[in-house]
Design brief:
Helix content: 25-40%
Pathway: Amino-acid biosynthesis; L-tryptophan biosynthesis; L-tryptophan from chorismate: step 3/5
Keywords: Amino-acid biosynthesis, Aromatic amino acid biosynthesis, Isomerase, Tryptophan biosynthesis
Distance between the termini: 7 Å
Structural class: alpha/beta
Enzyme class: isomerase
Strand content: 15-25%
Pfam family, one: PRAI
Family: Belongs to the TrpF family.
Bound molecules: ligand LARABZUK
Length: about 200
């Protein structure tokens, strides 16, 4: 079984930054311009998180139906990758020089009709509601055409189910947020990150 890279999403605190760096996740996701998310960051915090994450990890700006102005700000803040849920207009695509993770909420309102663009480097298959901790039916998406791009498996992953997700979907990257959160919902939980990372990277 190929061992995928790891993306830990929904960072909001400096402690979260220390944890993703300590456990050497390859990608860190920061939600912004998304008022309805409890993990939404102000621009000021999104900027601070990017600066603290540094260059050892790929910094992913996660947003929903962003505007041209927003994607330009994201680039200016030092993010490496733009992850887009919801709508992705051609004008927005052309306004960024960042590589794009195009996200689809499977089973939700999104039609999973992958757009074709050289700027898109990965497709994210996520649960029906982003960041809800709910998975989608993996078997229904086994034959998803990734068009030579990376596949990111997201939505409801835990230390208990991630091996099965890797076996079924053979993703290049696994993406987790809710499971690795503290019970209070404030920031990430070190024990859960350690468990998740160990499960993904164990042999066999
Ligand atoms: O996390 C959010 O609140 C969020 C809000 C708006 C757009 C995207 C959002 N999350 C993006 C993600 O990358 C995935 O949904 C997430 O990592 C998987 O979440 P979970 O099921 O909680 O593990």
């Amino acid at each position: 079984m190929k061992i995928p890279e790891i993306k830990i999403c929904g960072l909001t605190t400096m402690k979260d930054v220390r944890l993703v760096l300590k456990y050497k996740a390859e990608y860190a996701g920061v939600v912004m311009f998304c008022e309805k998310s409890r993990r939404n960051n102000t621009m000021e915090n999104a900027w601070k998180l990017a600066a603290s994450l540094g260059s050892q990890i790929q910094k992913v700006a996660v947003c929903e139906s962003p505007t041209r102005e927003q994607v330009q700000m994201i680039e200016h803040m030092g993010y490496d990758i733009l992850q887009v849920h919801g709508e992705l207009g051609r004008d927005v695509l052309s306004a960024t020089s960042l590589p794009v993770f195009r996200a689809y909420n499977v089973g939700g309102s999104d039609e999973v009709q992958p757009e074709r663009s050289d700027k898109i480097i990965a497709y994210v298959l996520d649960g029906a509601v982003a960041g809800s901790g709910e998975k989608f039916e993996w078997n229904d998406m086994k034959s998803f055409d990734r068009d030579g791009k990376k596949l990111v498996l997201a939505g409801g992953l835990t230390a208990d189910n991630v091996r099965e997700g890797i076996r079924v979907m053979a993703p290049d990257i696994v993406d987790v947020s809710s499971y690795v959160e503290r019970k209070s919902g404030e920031g990430k939980d070190e024990d859960k990150i350690r468990k998740f990372v160990e499960r993904v990277r164990e042999n066999g």
